[in-house]
Amino acid sequence: MSHIFISYSSQNRPYAKKLASFLINKGFKVWIDTSSLQYGINWWNAIVDGIVNCSAFFIIMTPDSYESEWVQRELFIALHEKKPIFPLLLKGKLWEIFYNHHAFTVENDAVPDDPFLADLSTIITPDKGEDISDLPVTADTTAIDTDDIYDQFEIAKQDQQWSLVFNLAGRLKASGVTNAEIEDAERLARMVIERDQFIQWVAIPAGRVRLSEYEWHSLPPFRISKYPVNVAEYQKFMEDQGYYRKELWKTAGWNWKVQHQIYQPARWNPTQMNHPVVGISWYEAEAYCRWLSRYLDDEIALPTELQWQYSAQGDPQIFTKYPWGNKWDVSRCNNSVPPCNSQGIMPVNAYESTGQSAFGVVDLAGNIWEWTASDFDSQPNIKVLRGGSWLDQDERSFQIDYRCGDTVTSREYNYGFRCARIGG
């Protein structure tokens, strides 16, 4: 059954009910706990079932819902189940996890506008608008055997099935059972789930990349970050003392950092959380990748220029000039090619609908130059940059095979990076 699940805190119930009524009148089926929970069932089971089976997940953002344990639980399940999420900002600030989402800002308790509904209709088709409160809830309605749940919890913990651990901990707590072991395991499960959602990755299949008419290279599968690393993602590295942890840095990079007293990017603006981090040297980008490897417990590195170009090129049988095709189009990336005159760096997802590559990787042309792991013309202290930036006035800079190089200590205000995850 296709439906919308609405997550909210109890303090925002009046708006949640108003939103549900509006959506129902527009022809959508809605799951909301004010009408969809039946008496005599385990309410947490029913909520989990409502999220798992929904086609779209709405979350009403306020300071209260940010602090709500149960709203955060619902969000983690939706993220783990990879549900399309539609954030609505009712009060306060946009949550960090949604910096790459187009959130609807609620003004004067207004309901979503037509563009929002148009986006929603691409995910779920409205019909007669029946409220699913009258439909049977498939959650278990039998008496809760907490001993059995606890046994499942222990097995899931031993098998490191963290999503299941998180859900079972919720069921135990909803039944009034809690202790330090449950709290610790739940905290670890939450961290693992949150960690896995930290950066969005695009899987790139094995294939061949064409650097020139006669130069082909084979590549194994890998993953690349969908967007350049943004300020919010880089801030976590800084908060984790990345600039003070010698083990994250190459020896030459650490010595350079200490000598020049480098403790943040050359162009640091924490108010623009979804803009790419810039003013980054190659050493800083490489240290971030080492930190991310530890954070994700996986092998993370700067992409080689072959990986970068393959991510932009897509099908090697069709050698396109730009990520979107063969024809230059000033409207598809942030650039200053006449008649454009860019006023500066833009959010990493600003051109997601028009400038992404065939693989779905965003911002590979324009906005910022991106560091790669590759040496420029066999010079180890000069690294290849790709992509062109908002400052560039020559369309050639944005072609997928165009390359330039700079020293590993250069910190230009239009230099940034993205990450690659080895192993596909």
Structure description:
With 424 residues, the chain is an alpha/beta fold. It is built from 14 helices and 15 strands. The strands form 4 sheets. It has a 5-stranded parallel beta sheet, with helices on both faces. It has a 4-stranded antiparallel beta sheet with strand order 6-9-15-10. A 4-stranded mixed beta sheet has the order 13-12-11-14. Strand 11 (369-376) and strand 12 (379-386) form a beta hairpin. The chain is globular.
Order of helices and strands: EHEHHEHHEEHHHHEEEEHHHEHHEEEEE
Helicity level: 25-40%
Mean pLDDT across all amino acids:
86
Helical stretch count?
A: 14
What's the end-to-end separation, in Å? 33 Å
**Strand tally:** 15
SSE topology:
Elements: E1 4-7, H1 13-25, E2 30-31, H2 33-36, H3 43-52, E3 56-61, H4 63-67, H5 69-80, E4 85-89, E5 104-105, H6 114-121, H7 146-158, H8 162-174, H9 180-196, E6 201-204, E7 207-212, E8 215-219, E9 222-225, H10 231-239, H11 251-260, H12 282-296, E10 300-301, H13 305-313, H14 352-355, E11 369-376, E12 379-386, E13 404-407, E14 415-416, E15 420-422
Parallel strand pairs: 1-2, 1-3, 3-4, 4-5, 11-14
Antiparallel strand pairs: 6-9, 7-8, 9-15, 10-15, 11-12, 12-13
